[in-house]
TrEMBL record:
It comes from the Bacteria. Residues 40-108 form the Cupin type-2 domain. InterPro entries: Cupin_2 (IPR013096), RmlC-like_jellyroll (IPR014710), RmlC_Cupin_sf (IPR011051). This is Quercetin dioxygenase-like cupin family protein.
């Protein structure tokens, strides 16, 4: 992550699983993979860390409420309601809520079956 400050561990984060689709039974070649949708709430001052990647776990994020700061490539980008970002194999990042209200996102990604 370059010269960024030390990244704190996860705190003030709640994750609610909303839905899962078994992709192996839907798409040939996707055995062992699931499409997952979660609601993630980051409280004011909360951090979704540490730095993590999305290799083999592509996804999309959409912000419903508040502002989430996405730290990647040495830059901090704020995303508010109605926008979001892709998470692909090049993504290496961590998130935080610098605001005064809970930030809520919907996250959809493809993951390996547990």
């Amino acid at each position: 992550m370059g010269n960024e400050e030390s990244v704190p561990e996860t705190r003030g984060v709640t994750v609610e699983l909303l839905a899962i689709v078994d992709l192996g039974s839907e798409i040939e070649g996707m055995t062992g993979r699931q499409l997952r949708m979660r609601k993630v709430t980051i409280e004011p001052g909360g951090v979704f860390g540490p730095v993590h990647d999305h290799i083999g776990r592509p996804g999309l994020v959409h912000i419903l409420q508040g502002t989430i700061t996405d730290h990647r490539d040495g830059a901090a980008t704020d995303y508010g309601p109605g926008v979001g970002w892709p998470e692909d194999k090049k993504t290496l990042h961590w998130l935080e809520n610098r605001g005064t209200i809970p930030a809520v996102e919907i996250s959809v990604d493809i993951v390996r079956k547990d």
